Automatic annotation (TrEMBL):
Domain of life: Bacteria
UniProt-listed InterPro entries: Epimerase_deHydtase, NAD(P)-bd_dom_sf, NAD(P)-dependent_oxidoreduct
Protein name stated in the entry: NAD dependent epimerase/dehydratase family protein
Gene3D superfamilies with a match to the protein in the record: NAD(P)-binding Rossmann-like Domain
């Protein structure tokens, strides 16, 4: 299958390229900067420099690739700039969908990064929420698969030793709260995304089998890093506790996470 991968140098996209190639797919992958071309090419894809906010250039790049499927793996989380990531999701996604429509592509796999999942795929998203609007835009295409990822951990993520969260925990600055986090190992993100190419169109939660409160997972994670035992704290007023998230639909489609629980994949001394 000819795939246009938007976001070929990110934590997911860079791992997806060789996995897609190994599965027999032909990949054109984007990078925002010319220096990212070598990474894309070394991993086995054709690279194209394009900024998704440049709608005319993006439309030109998608049309030139002549893809059968457009895959959205765009994030802007490197500097923890949530405003930039929100703009990328909102405006970048709209431009990518429009480019796919203009090129006559009728299928997209849209995946968005941690923290915006619900209990099951059939539960409605918050009315008027940014994520709900995004999914509606993607569903303008005749065929759409939406992957709602859990919180990434593993090499290259914030939860890797030395990563943003890892460093905060080692410094004793992250309290354990009742907030529930649905995790997913980055290797399982890649395997699910590749397998989703053959799944029926629809929405899938890509999370492990054990969503857990911070009072449960954080002490285990901290111990694996040799960090201080986290202090326990309640949630600030108005902070949502979140709900556990089911991966039953992805499992029914045939996905089996290599790390069924964060207990299996967290760093250990």
């Amino acid at each position: 299958m000819r795939i246009f991968l938007a976001g070929g140098t990110g934590v997911v996209g860079s791992r997806l390229i060789p996995a897609l190639q190994a599965a027999g797919h032909d990949v054109t992958a984007t990078t925002r900067r010319a220096e990212g071309l070598d990474l894309v090419r070394d991993r086995g894809a054709r690279g194209v420099v394009v900024d998704v906010f440049d709608a005319p250039r993006l439309a030109e790049a998608v049309a030139a690739a002549e893809p059968e499927l457009v895959m959205h793996q765009l994030t802007d989380l490197g500097e923890y700039d949530t405003a930039a990531n929100a703009r990328l999701r909102r405006d970048g996604t709209a431009n990518l969908v429009a480019a796919a429509e203009n090129a006559g592509v009728d299928r997209m796999i849209f995946a968005y990064a941690p923290g915006d999942t619900t209990a099951t795929e059939d539960d409605p998203l918050e009315p008027g929420s940014a994520v709900g609007i995004l999914e509606a835009v993607v569903h303008r295409l005749p065929r759409a698969t939406v992957l709602r990822y859990g919180m990434f951990y593993g090499d290259g993520t914030w939860y890797a030793p030395g990563g943003r969260i890892g460093g905060t925990v080692v410094a004793g600055q992250l309290p354990a709260t009742p907030a529930i986090t649905p995790f997913v190992h980055i290797d399982d993100v890649v395997s699910a995304t590749v397998q989703a190419l053959s799944w029926p169109d629809g929405t899938y939660n890509i999370v492990d089998d054990e969503p857990a409160a911070g009072t449960v997972w954080l002490p285990v994670y901290a111990a694996g890093l040799g960090a201080p035992v986290p202090r326990v704290a309640g949630l600030p007023d108005g902070t949502p506790r979140r709900r556990a998230v089911s991966n039953a639909r992805a499992r029914a489609a045939g996905w089996r996470p290599r790390y069924p629980s964060w207990r299996d994949g967290f760093p250990t001394l």
